[in-house]
Write a structure and sequence with these properties.
The structure holds 3 protein chains of 3 kinds. Chain A is built from 10 helices and 11 strands. By secondary structure, chain A is of the alpha/beta class. Chain A has 2 domains: 216 residues, Rossmann fold (3-Layer(aba) Sandwich), CATH 3.40.50; 46 residues, Alpha-Beta Plaits (2-Layer Sandwich), CATH 3.30.70. The longest helix of chain A has 19 residues. Chain B is α/β, with parallel strands linked by helices. Chain B folds into 2 domains: 205 residues, Rossmann fold (3-Layer(aba) Sandwich), CATH 3.40.50; 62 residues, Alpha-Beta Plaits. Chain B has 11 helices and 11 strands. Chain B has a 9-stranded mixed beta sheet with strand order 3-6-7-2-8-1-9-10-11, sandwiched between helices. A two-stranded antiparallel ribbon of chain B has the order 4-5. The longest helix of chain B has 18 residues. Chain B is elongated and about 70 Å long. The termini of chain B are close together. In chain C, 25% of the residues lie in helices and 22% in strands. In chain C, strand 4, helix 2 and strand 5 form a beta-alpha-beta unit. Chain C is globular, with a radius of gyration of 13 Å. The chains are: A alpha/beta, B alpha/beta, C alpha/beta. At the B-C interface, strand 3, helix 5 and helix 6 of B face loops of C.
């Protein structure tokens, strides 16, 4: 089973919820941190057997002997990654989206594709949690290939928890698209509500079943709950606005350790999600 | 005219809360919302839109069904799994959110049945608010914020500020350290980095400070909800000052912020509690430094 | 020789622009004939990425052999160097002033990119 944890914007408690889910899973679990621009999941775990695996994408290399200086590679490239003026083309790997157009269009087969490293996937385990974290190299603009690599680590574990990137960009979509169930974490404030609605629309568009966790829940703001009721969206859990939770987070202590009663709540949440998936 | 960009590194640290208050405090100013992924400033400023423009960025493929010969070459060539085959009808179509905009399918289509057209990514607006002019934008689902959109919104703000002879431009910048952030700070007079006293906040702050330093922009660092963790707050402030940054104050945890926002107001407008006073003081210190 | 200057305007009195890739335009000044031409770079404001590279290509196409701008990133620098175009920094206020500084020999050529690329 694949559960994605998403949020309309950063800082709502997505990582807190992902960790709590992983720490309470009723079986073998993998936690996949796809927040590759700001990966923070490892701060909360005591990882052992850490391994790093490089992530590569294919980028073009020009064989200057074979190049006939036609400039077609530069013409087809939509990403300004190939510059051509009389001398053999210059290639800017950082801008390449690995579409393969240049090598396909080259009339003299002067362009071959070679692997270029854009990041790493760090793997490790903390007791029964298998943890995978994608990290983009500095200077890289393309998150989706790193996310894809992290998602490729989904294995025979009974449960996979995916910590998705914030927002509703294509990175978030890559992480949520193939999940069996998505949990959207939000906070009941005007900002949080506005961002949540956008996340809800996105998840709906992807036809993925979902529910909401309201974090920092005891404000006077009722729009979030009202919206969920009106639109028949299930509120899975409410986590109170407790300064002790914030303090624990600040020091890198997971919620289920700081507040043991949340262990029970997340165990119950797992069985609810299990039931839902069973009915399908 | 001074342009101050509010950024954060990590999302959800209270960047927009501070930006909204600065919009109130900075008299004779233009406000620009460049955080188009989580464009929330409008909830406080409650703008009346006077101009809206479609925003195009990059291109996307579109298959003309009538001319498609169903050869499947596009699907074979696409590296982004963006071409979908309807198994019942045998027809091909482009998945909007997966299409990378490389144009390879259109280039090689033997029937020339694929259009490669500018992609509508969202809308941008010029508005009136009770604090003056406001420029902002809204992205479509699955669309990315880009250096381009940020640049367009900023230019728009600058033009209006020049026309009005405004004293300040207050910009709510995007989170992260990527291209949109760089596009939002280059050439600005100062950045105000709003962070939180957590290990995650600390690690993201370091990266964003490096960025500001790199572009030679004066930086201010404010720890929001500092009372969550005194130690990390001290550590962050020390780190900031050692990196040549200025700490104009801290902001405490308070219920006033959410209450103000629920009422569609910035916190300095809503109450005169501790948070409001702290932010007022921060603004005073920033203007003195500039 | 021809000299390109980044600007927000279309004539010699126009304000100098410190950005390169996303500069609205260039004035290309011919030192020999004392004539100038305004080149539009605004299409480039449209580039999702690689604005510096495209702008560098616009300079190459203009026939200029020197460029005066505020900052130049690594990719644009690489393209311009490959094309044999020398880059100069200035803090001039107008295009005319930038050219004046250049002619007076007050500007030193940039040996390496002075700002990081966008990442």
């Amino acid at each position: 089973m694949k559960i994605a944890v998403a949020s309309g914007k950063g800082g709502t408690g997505k990582t807190t919820v992902s960790l709590a889910l992983a720490l309470t899973a009723p079986g073998k679990v993998s936690l996949l941190d796809c927040d590759v621009e700001e990966p923070n999941g490892d701060i909360f775990l005591h990882l052992e057997n850490i391994k790093e695996e490089n992530v590569f994408v294919p980028v073009p290399h020009v064989d200057e002997q074979k190049c006939i200086r036609c400039g077609k590679c530069s013409e087809i490239c939509q990403f300004n990654a190939i510059v051509f003026f009389k001398t053999p083309p210059m290639i800017f790997k950082e801008l390449c989206h690995s579409c393969g157009g240049c090598s396909k269009v080259c009339p003299s087969s002067a362009i071959i594709e070679k692997d270029h490293k854009i990041g790493v996937v760090i793997a490790g385990n903390d007791k029964n949690i298998e943890f995978f974290q994608g990290k983009m190299d500095v200077g890289v603009a393309m998150a989706p290939p790193v996310i894809k690599k992290v998602l490729s680590k989904i294995n025979d574990a009974d449960f996979n928890v995916i910590d998705a990137p914030p927002g509703t960009s294509c990175s978030m979509i890559s992480a949520v698209k193939d999940s069996d169930y998505t949990i959207i974490v939000t906070e009941p404030t005007p900002f949080g509500f506005n961002d949540m609605k956008i996340a809800v629309e996105t998840v709906k568009k992807l036809s993925v079943d979902f529910g909401i966790i309201i974090n920092k829940a005891d404000t006077d703001y009722l729009e979030t709950e009202k919206y969920c009721q009106d639109n028949k969206i299930e509120i899975l859990m409410k986590i109170p606005n407790d300064v002790n939770i914030a303090k624990a987070y600040s020091k890198g202590t997971p919620l289920t350790e700081a507040m043991p009663e949340y262990k029970t709540k997340f165990v119950q949440l797992w069985s609810r999600i299990n039931d839902k998936m069973g009915k399908k | 005219m001074k342009e101050i960009v509010v950024i954060s590194g990590k999302g959800g640290t209270g960047k927009t809360t501070v930006a909204a208050s600065l919009s109130v405090l900075a008299e004779n100013s233009v406000v620009a919302d460049c955080d188009v992924d989580a464009a929330d400033l409008f909830l406080i400023l409650r703008p009346e839109i006077t101009e809206n423009h479609d925003f195009y960025s990059g291109k996307g493929a579109l298959i003309r069904q009538k001319e498609c010969i169903k050869c499947g070459l596009c699907k074979e060539l696409c590296r982004f799994d963006a071409i979908e085959l309807d198994k019942e009808t045998g027809s091909y179509s482009v998945g909007e959110t997966s299409c990378e905009g490389c144009g390879v399918c259109a280039y090689f289509c033997p029937a020339k049945a694929i259009d490669f057209i500018e992609r509508l990514c969202g809308e941008r607006y010029v508005s009136q608010t009770r604090f003056g002019d406001f420029v902002h934008a809204k992205l479509g689902i699955g669309a990315e914020n880009s250096g381009k959109l940020v640049t367009v919104v900023r230019e728009n703000g600058k033009k209006i500020a020049e026309k009005n002879q405004s004293e300040y431009i207050i910009t709510d910048g995007p989170p992260g350290i990527g291209c949109p952030v760089i596009a939002s700070i280059t050439g600005a007079d100062a950045v105000l980095i709003v962070t939180e006293p957590t290990l995650s906040g600390m690690s993201d702050l370091k990266r964003v400070l490096t960025l500001a330093k790199h572009f030679n922009i004066k930086s201010f660092v404010v720890v929001n909800k500092w009372d969550i963790n005194h130690e990390i707050t001290n550590e962050i402030e020390k780190y900031a000052e050692n990196s040549g940054s200025f700490v104009p104050g801290r902001v405490s945890i308070s219920q006033d912020v959410t209450k103000a926002h629920i009422n569609g107001k910035a916190v300095v407008e809503y109450s005169n509690g501790i948070t409001a006073q702290e932010i007022k003081n921060i603004w005073k210190n920033i203007t003195n430094q500039l | 020789m021809k000299l390109a200057v980044t600007t927000t305007g279309k004539d010699m009195g126009a304000p100098f622009e410190s950005r390169f890739g996303r500069a609205p335009g260039f004035i290309v000044y011919d030192l020999d004939n004392e004539t100038f031409e305004a080149i539009d770079n605004s299409m480039n404001l449209n580039a999702v990425q690689g604005a510096g590279i495209q702008a560098a290509m616009n300079i190459v196409k203009s026939g200029a052999t020197a460029l005066i701008t505020g900052h130049c990133g690594p990719k644009a620098f690489q393209v311009l160097s490959q094309a044999g175009i020398q880059i100069y920094n200035t803090e001039a206020q107008t295009v005319a002033q930038a050219i004046e500084f250049f002619v007076a020999g007050k500007l030193a050529p940039l040996q390496s990119p002075d700002v990081g690329g966008h990442w």
